[in-house]
Amino acid sequence: MLRFHILAINFAFSTSLFAAPLPEPSQQLVDFSRDIAPILQQHCLKCHQDGKSKGGLRLDARAELLKGGNSGVVVQLGQSGKSRLIQVIAGVNPDEVMPPEGEKLTSQQISLMRAWIDQGMKWGELKTIKPTQAGKHWAFEPVKAPKIPDGEASHPIDRFIQVRLEKEKLLTNPEATPETLIRRLYLDLIGLPPTSAEVDQFKSDASATNYEQLVDCLLADPHFGERWGRHWLDAARYADSDGYEKDLPRPYAWRYRDWVINAINRDLPYDQFVIEQLAGDLLPNANQEQKIATGFHRNTLTNKEGGVDQEEFRVAAVMDRVATTGKVFLGATIACAQCHDHKYDPFSQREYYQLFAFFNRDKETELDLAPPPLPRLSIPPKKTVVDAYSKAPVLTLGPDRKSHILIKGDFLRPGVEVQPGMPVSLGGNAAAATTRLDLARWIASNENPLTRRVFVNQVWSKLFGRGLVFTLDDFGTQGEKPSHPELLDFLATEFAQDGWSLKRLIRGIVTSSTYKQSSQIRPDHLERDPRNILLARQSRIRLESEILRDQALAVSGQLFESFGGPPIKPPQPPGISELTYASHLKWVETTGIDRNRRGVYIWLQRTSPYPSLMTFDSPDSNVCTVRRDRSNTPLQALTLLNDVVFQECAQTWGLKLAQRSKDVSATLAEAFRSLVGRELSSSEQERLMQLFVRFKTLYAAKPDQAKTLLGKSMNKVSDPTTSAAWIATARTLLNLDEFLNRE
Ligand code: HEC
Ligand code: HEC
Fold first, then answer.
1. Does residue 481's CB lie within 6 angstroms of at least one atom of ligand 2?
2. What sign has the CA pseudo-torsion 33, 39, 43, 48?
3. CA-to-CA distance for 54 and 723, rounded, in angstroms?
4. What whole-number distance in Å separates Cα of residue 653 and Cα of residue 671?
5. Cα–Cα distance, 52 to 46 (Å, whole number)
6. Measured from the CA of 341, which atom of ligand 1 is nearest?
């Protein structure tokens, strides 16, 4: 803080020391063509003309110059000394010097410009320079249905992949084993592993027909919405608290979470899904659900500290809505145009504030709801009863409010007024749009070049661990180009023809041979395509945080299946909630069996998010996330071994295994199968057996350690040594690499 002050003081000095004095106006009669045009042409027009108007200012026509730029008028006829244009070319404020680079204007040139303005700014012939046209950028071009390549494969996706692989002389992998395939499908579609019985059933007939029936079953399973809803909640930066320092609770935020899960389960077409979240409240005769959908943009941070400037944080929330809308739906870094024109993509600062204007009138309100049926909880509450069932955070239209370009993104520096409008480079028609609903409909239209491409790419990335465009959130010129552009457009085209159905899109992808391949890495894969861009194999993906917990609960028989309702607070290590502001957050642990509900229902506190989820790269929800990181750290292994929840899983499962038959080797084989679906090999069987025996010897020698491991169950077991050995073995099994990854 101190450092900052010193810098600020230095800066103030430099301003006064080096500020240039304003040269006097020239006394001669100015001739535009002779005196002014060369200055404009040589020093200004490359940034200030039709098609490229930096700072919103055009200097290629008198009327345009009179209109001014983003901060308003820049010339006052007859008063050159007061004109902003003169001040910037003279460098009165060293922060704002024009031209910003290259040669400065001489004092003689400035004198001429002053005289020109004082004498009425007469105009004449001006040679404009054609700005160098940037090449067309693929993602801003309309989606075109490509021709499906010729080839032997029956599935169109496979044809697109094969054509490229043939060029690269790489061969695809064979289909994964039925055990691997069914486990992959379960984890990808519903985020839970199959039971041994389900694996057996599939193994008995792993034909394509049976596989497709299985796909349909999983798409119809309500767990599908929880799994795919979680992806969307990342993008929606969903959390159960306000953020910022105080980070107060949001007891009704889950209403939006449930809306997402339900919408995905009923396969609400994606265009409608977009429209309802951005503008459900503005739909004619909007129903309660459509209003709750606007909770999407209520997930912005809220600062309720005393003494803060409410307007500053209101503007910050609106800016977040613009940034999130750009990133999630359009894969566009529109947020980069908040303070200056976008440096790489065709979005001007004015266009940013035209988008801003769509959200600037909105009011945050709480919708009163009829109480829903109580959720199926083991123990009713005490991922406040009356309160918790009566409201939902929504967005509604507030009173009219003017929108301005904010100079350098500063809410205290309003420039010229702007009206709502879409970016021209994306084919937006400025005249037609005035409301958030217009914006939503434009985003969700077939004409929008980005929306469908961006969404199918997000879906693809969840099923292969990597998008066809790697930068899921940047389809601009700085993003990566698509590895298979025709396939991307094929998927986008089919998607629209299929009624924007997420379920049908997923069905199409997971029935391809490309998806069904084994993830085995061959030496030529590693050498030629280590990042698996060409898809000559499936990807081996470390499971996401929620799934790691969910499947441990499922395998140990503890998962509590109930859908929706207020979030839970499962056990977490001590000291975590003390990290919150003044330790004010009390993590009142959920004590009923509902604490073993799925991870998607865990309370998300922004300043102290649930630690085991964070360790495995869950986002903290301060900003939207469309691509989770996949890190690999020692803390992860320590968490799986020692975290309370994982310990409880090992304990419960171990005790169950101890009660099965006395045949240790058969029990091990069965346990392993319920974990990853496949049979143990004989060498694996042998090693597990040795491990079990070692544990037994250890706990026979150290009964105290057995007691610690058994915890409360100590008094219930007849043979503590064997039971402890089973718990330790179960813990090892739950930490197997094959269990923590989706092959
Ligand atoms: C290399 C590009 C470039 C050149 C050349 C250039 N400008 Fe600028 N100009 C800018 C940018 C960028 C801004 C916006 C700065 C901002 O918003 O912080 C700007 C802003 C301005 C503004 C303020 C507009 C407003 O409303 O805030 C004026 C006036 C201006 N320029 C005049 C000139 C003049 C006169 C020349 C020629 C002598 C010139 N500029 C040359 C890039 C350029
Ligand atoms: C909160 C305000 C703000 C935001 C948001 C912002 N910038 Fe900037 N940026 C500035 C300022 C101020 C400058 C320096 C003055 C200038 O060049 O206009 C700058 C300069 C730059 C420059 C150097 C320009 C040059 O000519 O050398 C680049 C490149 C740039 N920004 C890119 C980005 C990108 C990409 C994003 C989005 C990820 C972004 N900016 C978002 C404020 C911002």
1. no
2. negative
3. 73
4. 9
5. 8
6. 12
C-alpha count within 13 angstroms, C-beta hemisphere, residue 129? 15
Q: Which of 97-101, 186-190, 512-516 has the lowest mean pLDDT?
A: 97-101
> Which of 181, 194, 187, 20 has its CA nearest to residue 110?
20
Which pair of tokens denotes residue 631?
A: 């890190």
pLDDT tens-place string over residues 78-133? 999 999 999 999 998 888 899 998 889 999 999 999 999 999 999 998 887 665 55
Q: Which residues are CB-contacts of 211 (< 8 A; sequence separation ≥ 6)? A: 181, 185, 202, 511, 516
CA angle 337–338–343, rounded 5-degree value: 25
Ligand 1 centre to CA of 64 (Å) is: 14
Name the closest-CA residue to atom 16, ligand 2.
Answer: 340
Separation of alpha carbons 654 and 657, rounded Å: 5
Ligand 2 pocket, mutate which of 334, 340, 355, 477 (most atoms under 8 A from CB)? 340
**Cβ–Cβ under 8 Å, residues 626 and 458:** yes
Ligand nearest to the CA of 38: 1
Residues 6 or more apart whose CB falls under 8 angstroms from that of 449 comprise: 139, 140, 141, 142, 143, 426, 427
Tell which residue, 625, 297, 622, has the closest CA to residue 439.
297
What length does the chain have? Answer: 743
Q: What whole-number distance in Å separates Cα of residue 143 and Cα of residue 496?
A: 11
CB of 103 sitting under 6 A from ligand 1? no
CB 405 within 8 A of CB 416: yes
Q: Among 741, 743, 692, which Cα is nearest to 521's?
A: 743
Nearest-5° Cα angle at 534, 529 to 539: 80
Nearest by Cα to 179 from 623, 674, 544: 674
* Residue 413 Cβ contacting ligand 2 at under 6 Å: no
Residue 731 structure tokens = 């813990």
Contacts of residue 68, Cβ cutoff 8 Å, sequence gap at least 6:
56, 57, 74, 75, 416
Task: Measure the CA–CA gap between 529 and 523, rounded to whole angstroms.
Answer: 10
Maximum Cα interatomic distance, the chain, rounded to a whole number of Å: 110
Q: Report the C-alpha gap between 267 and 271 in whole angstroms.
A: 11
Q: In whole angstroms, give the CA distance from residue 322 to residue 220.
A: 34
Q: Ligand 1: does its nearest atom lie under 6 Å from the Cβ of 48? A: yes
Nearest to 352 by CA among 427, 404, 310: 404
Q: Is 711 left (phi over 0), alpha (psi -120 to 50) or beta?
A: left
Nearest residue CA, atom 22 of ligand 1?
55
Instruction: State pTM to two decimals.
Output: 0.89
| Predicted confidence (pLDDT) per residue in 540-591, tens digit | 999 999 999 999 999 999 999 999 999 999 999 888 878 777 677 788 999 9
91 Cβ closer than 6 Å to some ligand 1 atom: no
| Pocket of ligand 1 contains residue 55 by CB under 6 Å | yes
Using a 10 angstrom Cβ sphere, with 0-12 exposed, 13-18 middle and 19 or more buried, the burial of residue 397 is middle
Report the C-alpha gap between 689 and 381 in whole angstroms. 44
Nearest Cα residue to atom 24 of ligand 2: 343
Ligand with an atom nearest the CA of residue 59 = 1
- Tokens describing residue 186: 């379960």
Q: Give residues with Cβ within 8 angstroms of 268, minimum separation 6.
A: 276
